[in-house]
Amino acid sequence: MKNKGFSLIELLAVILILGFIALIAIPIVNKMIKESKDSAFKTTVINISNQIQNKCVLEKTNSKEITEYYQIINKKIYPNIDIKGELADGIIYVDKDCNPYFVLKNENNTAIKDYNSEDIIIRNDTYIGNLPPNISIGTPVYFNPETALLCNKNEVNEDANNKTGCMKWYVYKKNDDNTHQLILSHNTTDLTKWNESGANIDGMTTILTSLENDTQSWKTSLNPDLITANDIAKIIKNDSFNESTSVYTDNFKFNPEATEPGTNKYAWLFDYTKNSRSKGGNVDYSGTRGYWTKSKTYNSTDRVWNVNGNGLYARACNDGEVIGIRPVITY
């Protein structure tokens, strides 16, 4: 009997059927692969979180200082502890009750456990930020700008004019790319002029040189800078202030009713200045009254906005006798 092959029409029919099956199957398989990878990543994250939480509980049990921050870079954890299993790069925080919150990443995903939430959110992207998305303005962060690594508060050096090592910072702004702006808790330079000419139109020439000197050992990726007057206004929710239109008499106080030490909720903006405690602050330091912003006043040729214990005020930009530098960074 003579064998008969497939006709062209039959071959086309088979190809069409196979193509139709593939059209349905490929998305399903891709979805299964993705879900499997997401599940494996979540398991890795939970494992890391649980081990760090257990370490915190052990520290509390032994009456030791709690390690509040961990940073994982290139699969290495700082400070160094023994974590069994896979590691994912990112940041882990532990509060006083040993509750962890974190931003951890692999090549395709980001896991976020935010403040006041038990849920772990898996995002199918690489979240740029290093801090939790809903971190509160005014939250302290302990950070070494020379290594760009987090550190623990028992390592902090808040001495006047300190520019190196572990220092205390405060979150004051979230950027559109999910990075955050941090301001240092103290001045790196007590006293300096904004510029020598006395004309604010000439820009902040003198203070930029001082800022560069103060931050020369820091990682350049942190973009050391000065805070703006508009940022200060936004922090204290002063909606009527705008540095583009506000004249030098439009100064404002932070929290004038706070006169007892430690009662001003904005103390983190002016601690380590002269008479800070009498304005509701926590720490007095006689070496400086405050720090310069990068914002000049509107309709004035010589004045620039500065921060002190009273609030936001204007001062002649070539006055170098009372105001210093308090850097900000992007992290």
Features:
alpha+beta, 5-stranded antiparallel beta sheet, 331 residues, single chain, elongated, 6-stranded antiparallel beta sheet
Describe, in plain words, how this protein is organized in 3D:
- The radius of gyration is 27 Å and the shape is elongated.
- The N and C termini lie far apart (80 Å).
- The protein has 331 residues and is an alpha+beta fold.
- It has helices spanning 8-61, 205-214, 229-235, and strands at 69-73, 76-78, 89-94, 100-105, 110-113, 121-123, 140-144, 149-150, 167-174, 180-184, 252-253, 290-296, 303-308, 311-316, 323-324, 328-330.
- The model has no long low-confidence stretch (mean pLDDT 89).
- 34% of the residues are buried.
- The longest helix has 54 residues, at 8-61.
- The protein has a 6-stranded antiparallel beta sheet with strand order 2-1-3-4-5-6, covered by helices on one side.
